[in-house]
Design a protein that fits this description.
The chain is mainly β. It contains two helices and eight strands, in the order αβββαβββββ.
Amino acid sequence: MESSEVPKILEDDVISKNFKGRLRQIITFQGADGLQKVKETVIDSFAAILIRVVGFKEIYEAWEQQYQSFIDEYKENDVGLNKDQTCQAKQKEWLEQVPKVLCLQTNRLEYKDNELFKHRHKV
């Protein structure tokens, strides 16, 4: 498992201390050698989390679905392997560092018949 120690956000301004956090992306897949592999990457800091709520009634369910997904044609980047070989991978994102104030922004937009439509259902 690849892992790296990431320092906390060191910016001293009030906005960074209160509103910025950090995400960790975890990708699990079966390598070319047949073994289960895990690749972890730290994603840059964020100020708000965008959650797509179309089709969900609960914010927690929408958030959980958004941060777990599958990549159908994931390419393993190890040196010496066949670059054309792909596999299915599971991708998750976890809050690495939670800000003091967590801002959630709901995305209610969807394209229907080539037009932008805004859902107004209760979440």
